[in-house]
Amino acid sequence: MSSNNTFQMNPRAINSGFTIVEMIVVIAIIGILSVIAIPAYQGNVMHSMRSVAVSGLMDMANRQEQFYLNNKTYASDLSNLGYTAGMVFTQDGVSAVALNDNQSLVISTSPERVYVIKVASFSATTYSLSAVPQQTQVTDVLCGTMTLDNAYAQTVSGTGMPSDCW
User: Are 34 and 41 in contact (CB under 8 A)?
Assistant: First the structure.
């Protein structure tokens, strides 16, 4: 009785790894998906951050209207509208506050600021409020600076229409 002690390998077991061509194809597919997905994601984030501007402008407009009802004039200083004095600052000669992505007030130099909301112009009977993009939001060329006035007219400085941004 003789036994055959020869070791036989499965030919598939030897070639069970990935070839360099397969790896390159996978990397190319990942690269193509990244080129498409990352800008789309960034665009969606930018679009969602516009709600910070809209909310901030609407809040400030409501405060202005309440101030007008009480004082028969609009306010130029945001401290008079109930904003925390430590958070109100002057930008380009007008009173302003900075908002982060949670629509919370932050200091003017905060790296978390997304928009600066300010009184762009005012008189006793009119006002214009602006939401100026900050940090990464400055690349929002569709909307740019968003503006709201006492007649609730909405404008944008970007290439888009107000309906695209509001």
Answer: no
Its pTM surpasses 0.85: no
Name which of 61, 54, 76, 52 is nearest 156 in CA terms: 54
Is 4 inside any structural domain? no
In a domain, 12, yes or no: no
Find all residues with CB under 8 Å of 21, minimum gap 6, and list them: none
Q: In Å, how far are 17, 20, 44, 145 from 30, measured between CA atoms?
A: 20, 15, 21, 36
In a domain, 54, yes or no: yes
Instruction: Please tell me the predicted confidence (pLDDT) of residue 85.
Output: 80
**Does residue 116 fall inside a structural domain?**
yes
For residues 66 and 58, the answer to whether their CB atoms sit within 8 Å is no
Domain range for 155: 18-165
Q: Are 50 and 143 in contact (CB under 8 A)?
A: yes
Is 61 in contact with 130 (CB distance < 8 Å)?
no
Question: Does residue 103 surpass a pLDDT of 80?
Answer: yes
Q: For residue 79, count other CB atoms closer than 10 A to its CB.
A: 14
Domain count, the chain: 1
The pair of three-digit structure tokens given for residue 136, joined into one six-digit string: 């990464």
Q: What is the pLDDT of residues 30-66, one digit of tens each?
A: 988 888 888 777 777 777 789 999 999 999 999 999 9
